[in-house]
Write a sequence for this structure.
């Protein structure tokens, strides 16, 4: 099993090296991939060590849901000798970052959450009633974004391919349901480190009231909303997103 994990670490990761001391780890969502973070990587890589692992959402050794993704993240950090990183997570990636911080509070310097699950969400991955309908899948993806122009054929084909494969579709459903079950409301007060919340005002997956709850229950949180923005601010409004992150890291 450890060999499989190490192989996954080596094959599915992007690292932007620099001489800076601080490490940043970017965690994508349930249907996300490494390209979601392109603008963030370009902005932060001159001043930080930026790491972008591909979460093993579909690997056969993943049984155990989100907790196994937390284990994967710990293995990844140890493998690359990353200590006290800043974790930046979108959607399910934010949930993983929260669970990791709760499990290893002394190992995380700061958190940035954007459209994070962990309280409640209207999950696209909970069911696939029209799995063979390409236009239906495209419409469901477009619904996640306020700025529809970020949705291209490559993105749609990527998601469509996932839901065509039974094992991958089952993994997505399992993780989506586990995310809905793992409500962290009663645990958030244990996270004492600084947390930046960046939320799209038009997010229909984790609506703005979810951000308000995170802000209420996290003891050391800062919240910024972005207009004309849905569930993925780092893709839809990268300049504003990067500005908030850069100010937060410099503070």
């Amino acid at each position: 099993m450890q060999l499989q994990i190490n192989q996954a670490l080596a094959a599915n990761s992007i690292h932007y090296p620099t001489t800076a001391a601080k490490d940043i780890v970017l965690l994508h969502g349930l249907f996300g991939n490494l390209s979601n973070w392109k603008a963030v990587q370009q902005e932060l890589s001159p001043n930080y060590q930026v790491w972008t692992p591909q979460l093993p959402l579909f690997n056969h050794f993943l049984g155990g849901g989100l907790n196994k993704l937390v284990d994967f993240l710990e293995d990844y950090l140890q493998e690359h000798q990353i200590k006290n990183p800043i974790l930046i997570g979108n959607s399910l990636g934010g949930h993983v970052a929260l669970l990791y911080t709760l499990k290893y509070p002394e190992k995380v310097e700061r958190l940035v959450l954007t459209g994070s699950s962990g309280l409640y969400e209207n999950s696209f991955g909970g069911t696939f009633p029209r799995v063979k309908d390409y236009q239906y899948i495209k419409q469901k993806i477009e619904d996640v974004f306020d700025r529809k122009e970020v949705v291209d054929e490559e993105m749609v084909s990527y998601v469509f391919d996932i839901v065509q494969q039974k094992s991958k579709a089952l993994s997505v459903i399992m993780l989506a349901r586990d995310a809905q079950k793992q409500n962290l409301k009663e645990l958030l007060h244990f996270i004492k480190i600084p947390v930046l919340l960046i939320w799209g005002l038009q997010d229909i997956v984790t609506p703005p009231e979810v951000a308000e709850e995170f802000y209420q229950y996290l003891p050391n949180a800062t919240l910024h909303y972005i207009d004309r923005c849905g569930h993925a601010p780092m893709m839809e409004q990268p300049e504003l997103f990067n500005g908030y992150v850069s100010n937060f890291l410099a503070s």
